[in-house]
Design goal:
It is a multi-pass membrane protein. The protein is mainly alpha-helical. Helix content is 76%, strand content 4%. The protein has a single domain (25-320), classed as ABC transporter involved in vitamin B12 uptake, BtuC (Orthogonal Bundle), CATH 1.10.3470. It has 14 helices and 6 strands. It has a two-stranded antiparallel sheet with strand order 1-2. It has a two-stranded antiparallel ribbon with strand order 3-6. A two-stranded antiparallel ribbon has the order 4-5. The longest helix is centred in the last third of the chain and has 46 residues, at 323-368. Residues 1-9 have low confidence and may be disordered.
Length: 369
């Protein structure tokens, strides 16, 4: 009876522990949303017209670019991978679009150049982006190369290829030529629908599609399974290599979308477009609660993380903060996000251990009674 009494006395303590830990865990899980509210509140007070409709539309239009990249790389990070080549993919895909619109497809044998319409250019560029990502995934899985090293090498290759397409020059005048039938590319970045830019609608649609894939389709569950325990996922029948190739292909496809939108907004393509954009995308994903160790993350969290990074960057610019200080502040935010992520992981493990102990106590009490 004394043994049972000791167990019984420990039950309230465990419940109190669970309540306290549960509250802290809830706050950690909601950290991105809390950060978003605090940032918007701060800039609403310190920056005039920060919440004005016009200002918000412009800022969300900027955020959409980072959101495209972040949404694409979320699956990669959930599988415990990384893709450092998305910024370079953005730049190269924009250059390819610029080449097709301004130079066309030259056929030396016939002495002519074919200028494809926008309805051909866009799908072709998206296909190239997806193939670049798939190539990353194939190298990583086929030769067991670390994702960091593979995508770092790919980043340099793609950035060099973007320079080679024009000798480092810009492709201007991407509005096309009516006589060639290739106009309309600029409308992707400047067009509006129901009062909002196309880029914002594209961001919403892409987020909904990727969220549906993550939550409703077997592919999404396989991605999480690989990130949680790759060996166990493989033993359970998941075709790990194929899933990883698709994951990187999605990342490349989303980078191509961003490249098209950026070039369309600028009505010009420059090989340096997208430089360091991968850092903002990774920061948004980590801020959104996706674990760098894999197996945990949400699309909604990534989207909110992109808004946090976007509002922070634009708010600092509107306050007149130096670009150098902006880099320092972004770096601090990223480090804090990683630290909080590690805290959340440790607390979840501790909560799991406490829950297991509580179940053992309950089972022992039932058995003894």
């Amino acid at each position: 009876m004394t043994h049972l009494s000791g167990k019984a006395q420990s039950a309230p303590a465990m419940k109190a522990f669970n309540s306290r830990e549960g509250l802290i865990l809830l706050l950690l899980k909601m950290r991105t949303f809390i950060a978003l509210i605090l940032i918007v509140g701060f800039f609403a007070i310190t920056v005039p017209d920060f919440l004005a409709v016009g200002s918000m539309v412009i800022m969300i239009k900027h955020i959409a670019i980072n959101a495209f990249l972040a949404l694409g790389i979320t699956f990669v990070i959930i599988t415990a991978g990384i893709d450092l080549s998305i910024g370079a993919t953005l730049g190269l895909c924009g250059m390819i679009a610029g080449w097709l619109i301004t130079k066309g497809i030259v056929l030396p044998a016939f002495g002519i150049a074919i200028f494809p319409s926008v309805w051909v250019v866009v799908p072709l560029v998206l296909l190239i982006g997806g193939l670049i990502g798939a190539a990353n995934g194939w190298i990583i899985t086929r030769y067991n190369v670390a994702p960091f090293i593979c995508t770092l090498g790919t980043m340099y290759i793609l950035r060099g290829a973007a320079m080679l397409t024009s000798g480092g020059e810009t492709f201007p005048g991407l509005q096309g030529n009516p006589q060639l039938g290739n106009t309309g590319f600029d409308k992707i970045g400047s067009g509006y629908f129901l009062g909002l830019p196309w880029a914002i609608w594209m961001m919403i649609v892409l987020a909904l599609v990727i969220a549906y894939v993550a939550r409703r389709l077997p592919f999404g569950r396989q991605v999480y399974a690989i990130g949680d325990n790759e060996r166990a996922a493989e033993l359970s029948g998941v075709r790990v290599k194929r899933v990883k190739i698709f994951v990187y292909a999605i990342s490349g496809l989303c980078a191509a979308i961003a490249g098209i939108v950026v070039s369309s907004q600028l009505v010009a393509a420059h090989p340096a477009n997208g430089t360091a954009f991968e850092m903002n995308a990774i920061a948004a994903v980590v801020l959104g609660g996706t674990s760098l160790a894999g197996g945990r993350g949400t699309i909604l969290g990534t989207l909110i993380g992109a808004f946090v990074i976007g509002f922070l960057a634009d708010g600092l610019i509107m306050m007149g903060v130096s670009e150098f200080w902006q880099m320092v502040i972004k770096g601090i935010v990223i480090i804090i996000a990683v630290i909080i992520d590690q805290m959340q992981s440790r607390m979840q493990q501790k909560a799991a251990v406490v829950a297991q102990k509580a179940l053992l106590v309950e089972a022992e009490a039932t058995r003894t009674a």
